[in-house]
Amino acid sequence: MNRKHISSGAPWETKVGYSRAVKVGHYVHVSGTTAAKEGQIVGKGDAYLQAKTILEIIARALKEADASLNQVVRTRIYVTNIADWEAVGRAHGEVFAEVRPASTLVEVKGLIDPDMLVEIEVDAYTGD
């Protein structure tokens, strides 16, 4: 099996034992991603900005896996406050309006850091 691991360099990857993304054949699976950059949360208190930042991080991981946002077939979105669904949905729609992947958005009790309002994971298919 041809398997490629993509790392973001986050310390949690080795601690917890996961990769930012894994490509197996024509499939790319991107782990749950938050708006953390260089150990800092981007967009504290702003779910829209966090979602935009997350999608940028995901785009970079996909590129490293020789994939793109246009090849995303599934997204899963976790928010800590369901009232943020419209702001997060707007950010998602700006990126995926034409792609229209299958998607789920659910409220969760919390994420690892209380300043994290959103976490997104995606699956992409790079075959024909």
Give a quick precis of the structure.
With 128 residues, this protein is an alpha+beta fold. It is built from three helices and eight strands, in the order E-H-E-E-E-E-H-E-H-E-E. The two termini are 19 Å apart.
Q: Tally the helices: what do you get?
A: 3
What is the SS-derived class?
alpha+beta
Order of helices and strands: EHEEEEHEHEE
**Range of strand content:** 25-35%
Q: Main β-sheet, in a few words?
A: 6 strands, mixed
Q: What is the CA-atom radius of gyration, in angstroms?
A: 14 Å
Care to count the β-strands?
A: 8
List keywords for this structure.
two-stranded antiparallel sheet, 8 strands, 29% helix
Explain this structure to me?
The protein has about 130 residues and is of the alpha+beta class. It contains 3 helices and 8 strands, in the order βαββββαβαββ. The protein has helices spanning about 10-15, 45-65, 85-95; strands at about 5, 20-25, 25-35, 35, 40, 70-80, 100-105, 120-125. The strands form 2 sheets. It has a 6-stranded mixed sheet, covered by helices on one side. The protein has a two-stranded antiparallel ribbon with strand order 4-5. Strand 6 (about 70-80), helix 3 (about 85-95) and strand 7 (about 100-105) form a beta-alpha-beta unit.
List the helices and strands and how they pair.
Blueprint: E1 3-6, H1 11-17, E2 21-24, E3 27-33, E4 36-37, E5 40-41, H2 47-64, E6 72-79, H3 85-96, E7 102-107, E8 118-125
